[in-house]
């Protein structure tokens, strides 16, 4: 029986309106930064990607991008109600997210849109020194939630980081499949697939 859920941020709880295109940010070294990241299979942090592309001051540029991205964050339509109901049912909830800069900007943005107050913990990869699918980031979340892997589930939209990492950590892996994703070209099988966050309520009574 589960008593806690970890949840991914982008693509699971929220989406970002900011697009990584040069026409919106003239300092970008390529026309489409998202496409460049996908070409590298999403294995780099934003700072590493910018440095690899030859950007001047990649750390500063990454911070600017993150700030704009955080300003354009918005929850999916079912996010707030689903989190509130899961909390009402007694589940402890933690965010587990891969980010390339300190998590403070994202934490403030999540608080602003109402997601933060519904979470018991927020764990950002930059702050703990481990990125999904590394089991260490999940271990940090489980410690903050005061639970064990077999009593926790992780919910995310990416097979290669969310599902793979959750399984490596010994957790129940839930894949949120909101539609075609160009990054998803194979990966481990999840324990459960849902088409929306609200569908979680059918499986976590």
Structural class: alpha/beta
Main sheet: strands, sense, barrel = 6 strands, parallel
**Amount of beta strand:** 15-25%
Helix/strand order? EEHHHEHEHEHHEHEE
Low-confidence stretches: none
Read across the widest sheet, the strand sequence of neighbours is 5-4-1-6-7-8
Tell me how many strands there are. 8
Question: Whole-number average pLDDT?
Answer: 87
Structure report:
The chain has 205 residues and is α/β, with parallel strands linked by helices. The chain is built from 8 helices and 8 strands, in the order E-E-H-H-H-E-H-E-H-E-H-H-E-H-E-E. The strands form 2 sheets. A 6-stranded parallel sheet has the order 5-4-1-6-7-8, sandwiched between helices. Strands 2-3 form a two-stranded antiparallel sheet. Strand 6, helix 8 (159-168) and strand 7 form a beta-alpha-beta unit. The longest helix is centred in the first third of the chain and has 14 residues, at 58-71. The model has no long low-confidence stretch (mean pLDDT 87).
Could you provide a short overview of the structure?
The protein has 205 residues and is an alpha/beta fold. The protein is 35% helix and 16% strand.
